[in-house]
Automatic annotation (TrEMBL):
Residues 559-624, 683-707 are annotated as: Disordered. This is Apyrase. Keywords: ATP-binding, Hydrolase, Membrane, Nucleotide-binding, Transmembrane, Transmembrane helix. Residues 601-611 have a biased composition (Acidic residues).
Length: 707
């Protein structure tokens, strides 16, 4: 195992998939080099701009052609990751594909087929570590996406540090997190002490682990609003326009620049099309931003019934937010819509309601042709193209309504707050030094690292790979209950460390632990062959057993075949193992405890699926007449990294134990004992040898050579 540990996450969003690569020091080295303060901090993750790569479209577009997701989509992403991960570390590198809103909207059967195809392709075409597809390849709920984002924001802002400089008051140190994509929006925050106690059942218990092996625990509220991302909100807005004027073919849209004509899907109107002929409705921009804000407000559904008070909007329960201590950072659309449109003209402007509304009002009131001229001259920067210019007015109105009317963020610049006004670059930098003390701040990168929920997921996973101190509980999240609740999600699928975290075997990797068999272990296939051979030997009858035994003795060079009345000789190893034709063998079956008479020596093994703490006992039998095979608790899988891999058993040639062994073994034991009693009765007939001097069978277990 090298100096670095790597992790790969594929963020499968609604519009495309982006691969992220992260790395961190392996835990042994990190502990060795850490200071006292660093031992109480989380692992330090690194990433680089060139390690990120995005392709279009999103995975959800493969819903009806799942067989093409591998070669047409995943191959490029995996190829990119392999360019930056050292070859010798690929097998130790965990890969995750976590899908968000786009996949949530797919029909259930299409979603399941896509996930299965993704898992199969990743396992057959890459060597990445993928032990549990149910955890590593999945559609994550919006609440989980928000929780990961909350981890990322606080990780970068120092909210988890022990020597925390961002004391927000009343002992509150963490930041709130807001995210908005195309289809959904999320919020995650740690309520103040009063609200946390009042709404304990609504919170998620999150557990991280420091480099020193200690736990960090937080109680976080996270929720999502599906359909409240900017693209889905726009669809609902246009639908409302159409329904308000069902007979109209020209629908005035205050959220579009004045003079712009587009279809109801936002596409240019082509000459000769149905929209151009007036056969179907189209949108006509009026460029009235104030009216746009008022018409998008009803989309919040503030009047929906609140079944669990308090609610923000759409009847969604959210504990009361104390903005004096809950300071939020917003990413994705919160950043793009507030900053990138005005990149060149107002690059020094941080978000505040007063300044932002002024700039948007100025932009959106211009005729469309003037806006188009500004786009062509790069007046608003390289990132602002015609499509962005058309969409920004609606997005800005939606963001303002979500922030201030929906979530309730105070309007900085109009409403008095402790954080004050942060309209200049100097003030913004001062806010950073204070720890972002305004109630809301849009961010994209902090200290050069993008604030992304994928970072939060990898922070959680990296901390789970640190060996715990003493009885430290597992890393992950679940219901707000003590210990490990039933719905607890382990950070990597199971609470299992990779090999570089075991000091006694620092050079072994994950594949070594799982697939490199001990040279002292009897292969399972040979063991099954031996057991079946023994069963057949017992049921084939006395004469056949005698014949087989004699031939084997002769073949192995242990003397010539003997007849039943030949003088008795000392038995060699084959004779002990397969028995002799001497009548003394049958006598042993009726003496003493058969279960303690003979058994194969215990075999040293690291088989995790054993039903005993002493290791595997697969090679054990309870006596000649009733051989048994203990397979462990196959119905529950094993304790190995793959969980229920043994349960499936097809690759091992195993069926249910009762089917494979049960009846055959019982018949074998019954026949042997019956045959023994019949021949024991013959021993009283004149002419038969006396068995008085026959020695008992040895009781010392044979030491099988399994090296």
């Amino acid at each position: 195992m090298g100096k670095w540990r790597y992790g790969v996450i594929l963020d499968a969003g609604s519009s495309g998939t982006r691969v992220h690569i992260y790395r961190w020091l392996n835990s042994a080295r990190a502990r060795k080099e850490a200071s006292e303060q660093q031992l109480s901090s989380l692992p330090v993750l690194e990433t680089k701009k060139q390690w990120t790569h995005k392709i279009h479209p999103g995975v959800s577009t493969f819903g009806e052609k799942s067989d093409r997701i591998g070669p047409d989509h995943l191959a490029e992403l995996f190829e990119h990751a392999l360019k930056y991960i050292p070859k010798h570390e690929v097998e130790n590198t965990a890969v995750f594909l976590l899908a968000t809103a786009g996949m949530r909207l797919l029909p259930d059967i299409q979603r399941k087929m896509l996930l299965a195809e993704i898992c199969s392709y990743a396992q057959t075409h890459t060597a990445f570590q993928l032990p549990d597809c149910g955890i590593h390849i999945q559609v994550i709920p919006g609440e989980t996406e928000g929780l990961y984002g909350w981890i990322a924001a606080n990780y970068l802002l120092g909210g988890f540090d022990s020597a925390n400089v961002s004391d927000h008051g009343n002992g509150h140190r963490t930041y709130g997190f807001l995210d908005m994509g195309g289809a959904s929006a999320q919020i995650a925050f740690a309520p103040n002490a009063t609200e946390a106690e009042k709404h304990a059942n609504d919170l998620t218990l999150l557990r991280l682990r420091t480099i020193g092996g200690a736990n960090l625990e937080y109680k976080v509220f996270s929720t999502t609003w599906l359909g409240y991302g900017v693209n889905e909100a726009r669809k609902r807005f246009v639908k409302a326009l159409v329904e308000a004027s069902p007979d109209a073919t020209e629908l005035p849209d205050p959220c579009l620049p004045a003079g712009l004509n587009v279809t109801i899907t936002g596409k240019p109107i082509e000459p000769g099309s149905s929209a151009a002929k007036g056969d179907e409705p189209h949108l006509l921009g009026t460029g009235r931003f104030s009216e746009c804000i008022s018409q998008t407000y009803p989309l919040l559904d503030k009047d929906a019934p609140c079944l669990d008070d308090p609610c923000l909007f759409h009847g969604s329960h959210v504990p009361a937010i104390d903005f004096d201590v809950n300071h939020f950072v917003g990413v994705s659309e919160y950043w793009h819509t507030t900053h990138e449109v005005f990149e060149m003209a107002h690059v020094d402007k941080a978000y505040d309601f007063h300044t932002y509304q002024e700039r948007v009002q100025e932009f959106c009131s211009q005729p469309y042709q003037k806006i188009l001229d500004g786009v062509n001259s790069k007046k608003w920067g390289k990132k602002v193209d015609e499509e962005t210019a058309i969409e920004v007015c609606f997005k800005a109105s939606w963001l303002i309504n979500m922030l201030h009317e929906g979530i309730g963020v105070p309007r900085v610049g109009l409403e008095h707050m402790k954080g004050g006004h942060n309209g200049t670059k100097a003030v913004m930098e001062n806010a950073k030094a204070k720890g972002y003390l305004d109630p809301f701040q849009a961010v994209n990168k902090i200290n050069g690292t993008e604030v992304s929920w994928t970072l939060g997921k990898m922070v959680l996973y990296a901390s789970s790979q640190i060996p715990p101190a003493d009885d430290t509980l597992a890393v992950g999240f679940g219901s707000n209950e003590a210990g490990i609740p039933d719905d607890f999600q382990f950070a990597g699928g199971k609470d299992t460390l990779l090999a570089d975290d075991f000091s006694e075997e620092p050079e072994d990797d994950w594949h070594d632990i799982l697939s490199h068999s001990s040279n002292r272990r009897i292969p399972g296939f040979l063991l099954l062959v031996l057991i079946f051979a023994l069963i057949l030997f017992l049921v084939c009858g006395r004469e056949r057993r005698h014949s087989l035994s004699s031939k084997l003795r002769s073949l192995l060079g242990f003397g010539r075949p003997t007849s039943p009345r030949s003088p008795r000789k000392k038995r060699s190893f084959p004779g002990k193992f397969f028995g002799s034709n001497d009548p003394t063998y049958e006598r042993v079956l009726e003496e003493g405890d058969p279960a303690s008479s003979f058994e194969l020596a215990d075999v040293d093994s690291d088989n995790d699926t054993s039903d005993s703490a002493d290791g595997s006992r697969v090679g054990r039998t309870s006596g000649w007449a009733t051989p048994q095979l203990k397979l462990g608790n196959l119905s529950e899988g094993g304790s190995g990294y793959f969980g229920n891999a043994v349960e499936q058993g097809q690759g091992l040639g195993l069926g249910p134990p009762s089917v494979v062994f049960g009846n055959a073994m019982e018949r074998a034991g019954l026949m042997s004992r019956t045959d023994s009693k019949e021949r024991l009765a013959l021993s009283t007939v004149p002419g038969h040898r006396s068995r008085t001097g026959s020695p008992n069978r040895f009781r010392t277990p044979l030491k099988a050579n399994v090296d």
